[in-house]
């Protein structure tokens, strides 16, 4: 399934890009981003896609082509296939899944069949690798997920004694009594940092 490049998502290793140079059939083709974050094109050689949006990468390629190869090149790029994401832990069907543009942790959980009965449902651990370094942090369910990310849903605490309350309310009261949370709101505001769109992304061309 082709994913339209909006200029927002940054391509990464394993992504398949469709590069169209209008009027230049020999340059228009599918290119796979290699492990170093680069693509290799005729005439201009390797081009770094690391940290670039599709729109930024198109401008970089156009500038390279304009330097003695093509007069007034017009370049368009779309991500035809994103690298997959992983979801582990307390979901119904953990594993590897195709990435869906604009997805969040909550979307990832839904794709994996939903929370398991033992899942902690108020935050998740998000792991993201760049330049050989993996960053991990707790995020709320509304946090964005990028291609190649790993989402881990933790197991929640359980009451030791039978409880007549519905399971959701019972687990909330049990965890509150143990001092692990004060409320779902306080978790989102104080315990879980909200990840900004650029906080785990590198600079274009770096």
In words, what does this structure look like?
The protein is of the alpha+beta class and 206 residues long. The chain has helices at residues 54-66, 105-111, 167-178, 184-191, and strands spanning 16-21, 29-32, 38-41, 45-48, 75-81, 85-89, 95-97, 124-130, 133-139, 150-153. The strands form three sheets. Strands 7-6-10-8-9 form a five-stranded mixed beta sheet, covered by helices on one side. Strands 2-1-5 form a three-stranded antiparallel beta sheet, covered by helices on one side. Strands 3-4 form a two-stranded antiparallel sheet.
Total of DSSP H or I helical runs spanning 4+ residues = 4
| Oligomerization status of the protein chains | single chain
Kindly state the number of beta strands.
10
Rg over CA atoms, rounded to whole Å, is: 21 Å
Keywords:
Outer membrane lipoprotein wza fold like, three-stranded antiparallel beta sheet, alpha+beta, wza like fold, 25% strand, 206 residues, five-stranded mixed beta sheet, disordered N terminus, 2 domains
Briefly summarize what is shown.
This protein has 206 residues and is α+β, with helices and mostly antiparallel strands.
């Amino acid at each position: 399934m082709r994913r339209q490049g909006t200029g927002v998502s940054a391509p990464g290793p394993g992504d398949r890009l469709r590069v169209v140079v209008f009027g230049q059939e020999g340059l228009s083709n599918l290119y796979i981003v290699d492990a170093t974050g680069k693509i290799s094109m005729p005439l201009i050689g390797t081009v770094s896609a690391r940290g670039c949006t599709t729109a930024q990468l198109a401008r970089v390629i156009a500038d390279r082509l304009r330097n003695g190869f093509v007069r007034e090149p017009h370049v368009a790029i779309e991500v035809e296939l994103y690298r997959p994401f992983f979801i582990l832990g307390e979901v119904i069907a953990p594993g590897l899944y195709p990435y869906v543009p604009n997805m969040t942790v909550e979307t990832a959980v839904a794709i994996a069949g939903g929370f398991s009965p033992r899942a902690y449902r108020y935050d998740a651990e998000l792991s993201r690798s760049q330049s050989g370094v993996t960053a991990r942090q707790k995020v709320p369910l509304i946090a964005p997920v990028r291609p190649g990310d790993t989402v881990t849903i933790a197991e929640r605490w359980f009451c030791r004694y039978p409880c007549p309350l519905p399971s959701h309310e019972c687990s909330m009261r049990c965890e509150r009594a143990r001092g692990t949370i004060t409320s779902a709101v306080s978790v989102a505001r104080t315990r879980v940092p909200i990840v900004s769109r650029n906080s785990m992304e590198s600079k274009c061309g770096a």
